[in-house]
Amino acid sequence: MAAPSTDITSLVHEPIDPASLAAYVRGNGDGAIVIFDGFVRDHSKNRRTLYLEYEAYEPMALAKIQEIAAHLHNQFSIHRVAMVHRLGRLEIGETSVYIAVSAAHRAAAFDACRYAIDTLKRTVPIWKKEYFEDGSVWADGELPPVPSATSAVKPAS
Amino acid sequence: MPPVSQSIRVKVLFFGRLKEIAGRSHESVDLASEADIESLFARYASRYPELQQYRSSLVASCNQEFAPWNTVLHAGDEVAFLPPVSGG
């Protein structure tokens, strides 16, 4: 299930340019854009964060992001989607994930954007390591749902 | 015609803290031809005992799709062990 080619879905190692993504999804038939801009917070559980490092299983993560984008089009009356996640070292205040959804009406854009970030956080194989003054930890995460065990024969690849 | 092989070669990937424990991000391994993902993990857990404690808090993928532990592996498969995800 591929996302429409008019969507932008990517993993990047450089700073994300929010303005260009927001402009990209904006069309004359739209009446609203909802944006989720996730960025690096300066603290975690009462500790001062110095910076974060993100890593991904890149081909699978990109495929999962594209699945989410495709699902948005099936589920919500939206126009365009931009979903970009940054990897590598990120400083405080830098955008780690940016999602923009355009639609003719606001409700679909809100619902789709919320679904997109919630699903990304639960299913896309990306990991974040938090660096503090006295060490580093892998952030607590969510275990993605896995199809249940089956005896069905897997088609030969 | 090549001889019938008793083993298969698969690519294994580690991420997050699993990569740190295994000391590598990937390797190719030879397995018995009926091996499943569970037995592949058990093999690594015996080599790196610290891995065992994470068995219940990780998921596996096969060829970039989440896969149950009893997935039987085939030659050329790409298996990854994935800690809880924390993107965003």
Helix segment tally of chain B = 2
Spell out the CATH superfamily of chain B. Beta-grasp domain
What is the end-to-end distance of chain B? Answer: 50 Å
Distance between the termini of chain A: 18 Å
Q: What is the CA-atom radius of gyration of chain B, in angstroms? A: 13 Å
Supply the number of helical segments of chain A. Answer: 3
Q: Summarize the largest interface: chains and residue counts.
A: A-B, 39 and 30 residues
What count of structural domains of chain A?
A: 1
Describe the strand arrangement of the main beta sheet of chain B, using strand numbers.
2-1-5-3-4
Largest sheet of chain B: 5 strands, mixed
What is the architecture of chain B at the second tier of CATH? Roll
Shape summary of chain A: globular
Residue-averaged pLDDT of chain B, rounded? 95
Helical proportion of chain A?
25-40%
Characterization of the model:
With 157 residues, chain A is α+β, with helices and mostly antiparallel strands. In chain A, 28% of the residues lie in helices and 35% in strands. In chain A, β8 (126-132) and β9 (135-138) form a beta hairpin. Chain A is globular, with a radius of gyration of 17 Å. By secondary structure, chain B is an alpha+beta fold. Chain B has one domain (7-82): Beta-grasp domain (Ubiquitin-like (UB roll), Roll). Chain B contains 2 helices and 5 strands, in the order βαβαβββ. Chain B has helices spanning 16-22, 37-47; strands at 7-14, 26-32, 59-62, 65-67, 78-82. In chain B, strands 2-1-5-3-4 form a 5-stranded mixed β-sheet. The mean pLDDT of chain B is 95.
List keywords for this structure.
heterodimer; A: Aldehyde Oxidoreductase, domain 3; 5-stranded antiparallel sheet; 4-stranded mixed sheet; about 30% helix; globular; B: about 90 residues; alpha+beta; Ubiquitin-like (UB roll); 5-stranded mixed sheet; 2 helices; about 30% strand
What would you say about this model in short?
Chain A is an alpha+beta fold and 157 residues long.
